[in-house]
Amino acid sequence: MHVLILGGTTEARRLAERLAAEALPGLRVTNSLAGRVSAPRTPPGEVRVGGFGGAGGLAAWLHEHTVDLLIDATHPFAGTISSNAAQAAAITHVPLLALRRPGWVPVEGDVWHGAGSLAEAAGLLPSLGRRFFLTTGRTGLAAFAGLDDLWFLVRSVDPPEAPCPSRMEVLLERGPFTLDGERELLRRHRIDVLVTKDSGGAATAPKLTAAREAGLPVVVVRRPAMPEGVPVVTEPARAARWVREALARHPSARRCGPHVSG
């Protein structure tokens, strides 16, 4: 049975590691990475890098490579590939499961401002401060490029893509990040406001705690909606169980004939 994991996230890698550790007989796992990061953390199993060419291209790949299960474990903001996955699964009748880390939830002391998009987030900034810690990734900075009176500290794994804000300093770093480190970063750069996407997970959550402790407002860009009808789990263990159950039902699991006791 062939499983394709659309990955690039910590959850995708942990799922691939779990399946590799279980060494399920008859299971083939292919991990697909978008190739947007120059030095990705490679998961165990087969790996392919690059896009598929839309929903039709993904459907063709599923058919050509005889994929039995499709798992969308991409970033919560990878809306295009999630939509393509849902369409390709419908075209090919390949079962699809989404693996998504839970989103962040505000707690007492948080001062959050929700935004439906990066453009909406950019519109909120002039009324909130002058020095911003921007952790929305290296793409999409065009939404903030016209805010010439504001200063941005931009953190990303790889160098940002133009157009970018005119007043900007870039930190090339990869999480996980520590609470002490985030506290010092906010203090050293005299940050007024944190801007982030609701990516969820623990690796980058310390910045929210540091902002809360400092009494700083946080602009949180909400996640895009999942495609309708796609089942979602939040833990790699749940996704691995889905694979095991499908493997047990697969025709290859019954080729050895019935078990006879006694």
Q: Can I get a quick summary?
A:
With 262 residues, the chain is an alpha/beta fold. The chain has helices at 10-22, 54-64, 79-92, 118-124, 179-188, 206-214, 236-249, and strands at residues 2-6, 28-33, 46-49, 69-72, 96-99, 112-115, 131-135, 151-156, 168-172, 193-197, 218-221, 232-233. Strand 1, helix 1 (10-22) and strand 2 (28-33) form a beta-alpha-beta unit.
By DSSP, the count of extended strands is 12
Q: What percent of residues are in strands?
A: 15-25%
Largest sheet entry: 6 strands, parallel
Counting helices, strands and paired strands, the structural category is alpha/beta
Rg (C-alpha, Å): 21 Å
Number of helices: 7
Separation, N- and C-terminal Cα atoms:
31 Å
Helices and strands in order:
Layout: E1 2-6, H1 10-22, E2 28-33, E3 46-49, H2 54-64, E4 69-72, H3 79-92, E5 96-99, E6 112-115, H4 118-124, E7 131-135, E8 151-156, E9 168-172, H5 179-188, E10 193-197, H6 206-214, E11 218-221, E12 232-233, H7 236-249
Parallel strand pairs: 1-2, 1-4, 2-3, 4-5, 5-12, 6-11, 7-8, 7-10, 8-9, 10-11
Helix pairs in contact: 1-7, 2-3, 5-6
What does this structure look like?
- Helix content is 30%, strand content 21%.
- The chain has helices spanning 10-22, 54-64, 79-92, 118-124, 179-188, 206-214, 236-249, and strands at 2-6, 28-33, 46-49, 69-72, 96-99, 112-115, 131-135, 151-156, 168-172, 193-197, 218-221, 232-233.
- The strands form 2 sheets. It has a 6-stranded parallel sheet with strand order 3-2-1-4-5-12, sandwiched between helices. The chain has a 6-stranded parallel sheet with strand order 6-11-10-7-8-9.
- The chain starts with a strand and ends in a 13-residue tail after the last helix.
